C-alpha cells in the first residue's frame, strides 16, 4: 500500500481563514519536506524537517517520526496561496516518496 | 532493478566557470529531477522534467540551466560557479509526475569551486 497518505486531496478556503494538511506514513521516515506547486508549474520548497516544528510567516509545519505523520498549517490564507501542496518523505538516502498532493483553492 | 548514474562524482571548477553535471537513468522513468543539498539543509529542487525536452523550474533555478536531451538523461549546468556553490547535487527520477510517486536518487555529485 501507499507509504505516504496525504489529505485532503482538495481544499477550498476563504481568504483570511486557515486549515491544515496532513501526511500519514506507514513506516518510519527520516525527514519530511513540503512543497507548493504554483500556477506557473514551479515547485517551491516550503519546509524541510527531520523533527519538531518550523514556522515561516503564515505557514507552520510539524513532523513526528515516531507517530508517523506531518502537518502543514496555513493561517490567514491569501489568494496567492492557491496551488497544489505536496509532502515528500525521506525514507533513506536514496528514496523519497511524494504524497498525492492537496489542491488548495483560496476563495475571495 | 534500475540505477541512476551521476557524473562526475566530484567536479572542481574555478569561480565564474560554466560547469555541467550529467545524469543517466535506466529505469525508463518519465520524470527526472535535480536537487541541491547544502550541509544541514534539506533538498532544494533546482529543475525537473516530466518528459524529453521538458523543463520545469524549482525554487532554486536561478543561476542554473538544465537540459533533457532524451528520456534517460538530464544534465544540469551551473552557468557561473560561485564559491557558495559548493554543495552536493542530487539527480533523481520517478514514474509519471510527482503526485504519489517514489523518487530514486543517484549518489550525488560534489561541486567544489576554487
Provide the descriptors you would attach to this structure in a database record.
heterodimer; A: 108 residues; mainly beta; Immunoglobulin-like; six-stranded mixed β-sheet; five-stranded antiparallel β-sheet; 0% helix; globular; B: 114 residues; seven-stranded mixed β-sheet; four-stranded antiparallel β-sheet
Characterization of this structure:
The complex is a heterodimer of chains A (about 110) and B (about 110). By secondary structure, chain A is mainly β. Chain A has no helices and eleven strands. Chain A has a single domain, classed as Sandwich (Immunoglobulin-like), CATH 2.60.40.10. In chain A, strands 2, 4, 5, 9, 10 and 11 form a six-stranded mixed beta sheet that branches. The model of chain A has no long low-confidence stretch (mean pLDDT about 90). Chain B is mainly beta and about 110 residues long. Chain B has no helices and eleven strands. In chain B, the strands form two sheets. In chain B, strands 2, 4, 5, 6, 9, 10 and 11 form a seven-stranded mixed beta sheet that branches. In chain B, strands 1-3-8-7 form a four-stranded antiparallel beta sheet, with no helix packed on it. In chain B, strand 9 and strand 10 form a beta hairpin. Chain B is globular.
The CATH architecture of chain A can be named as: Sandwich
Roughly what percent helix of chain B? Answer: under 10%
Indicate the overall shape of chain A.
Answer: globular
| Structural class determined from secondary elements of chain A | mainly beta
Report the average pLDDT across residues of chain A: 89
Rg from alpha-carbon coordinates of chain A: 13 Å
Tell me the number of helical segments of chain B per DSSP (H or I, 4 or more residues long): 0
Count of domain modules of chain A: 1
According to DSSP, the number of beta strands of chain A is 11
Terminal-residue CA separation of chain A? 38 Å
Total count of strands of chain B:
11
Global shape of chain B: globular
Taken in chain order, the helices and strands of chain A follow as EEEEEEEEEEE
Kindly name the structural category of chain B: mainly beta
- What is the straight-line distance between the termini of chain B? 38 Å
Amino acid at each position: 500500500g501507499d507509504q505516504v497518505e496525504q489529505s485532503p486531496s482538495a481544499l477550498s478556503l476563504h481568504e483570511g481563514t486557515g486549515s491544515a494538511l496532513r501526511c500519514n506514513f506507514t513506516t518510519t521516515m527520516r525527514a519530511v519536506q513540503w512543497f507548493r506547486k504554483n500556477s506557473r508549474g514551479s515547485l517551491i520548497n516550503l519546509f524541510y524537517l527531520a523533527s519538531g516544528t518550523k514556522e515561516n510567516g503564515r505557514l507552520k509545519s510539524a513532523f513526528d517520526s515516531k507517530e508517523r505523520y506531518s502537518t502543514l498549517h496555513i493561517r490567514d490564507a491569501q489568494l496567492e496561496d492557491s496551488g497544489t501542496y505536496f509532502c515528500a518523505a525521506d525514507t533513506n538516502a536514496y528514496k523519497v516518496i511524494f504524497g498525492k498532493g492537496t489542491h488548495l483553492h483560496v476563495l475571495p | 532493478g534500475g540505477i541512476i548514474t551521476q557524473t562526475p562524482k566530484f567536479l572542481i571548477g574555478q569561480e565564474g566557470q560554466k560547469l555541467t553535471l550529467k545524469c543517466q537513468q535506466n529505469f525508463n522513468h518519465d520524470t527526472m529531477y535535480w536537487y541541491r543539498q547544502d550541509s544541514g539543509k534539506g533538498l532544494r529542487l533546482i529543475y525537473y522534467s516530466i518528459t524529453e525536452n521538458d523543463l520545469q523550474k524549482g525554487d532554486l533555478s536561478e543561476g542554473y540551466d538544465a537540459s533533457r536531451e532524451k528520456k534517460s538523461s538530464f544534465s544540469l549546468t551551473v552557468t557561473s560557479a560561485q564559491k557558495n556553490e559548493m554543495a552536493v547535487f542530487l539527480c533523481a527520477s520517478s514514474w509519471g509526475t510527482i503526485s504519489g510517486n517514489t523518487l530514486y536518487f543517484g549518489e550525488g555529485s560534489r561541486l567544489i569551486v576554487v
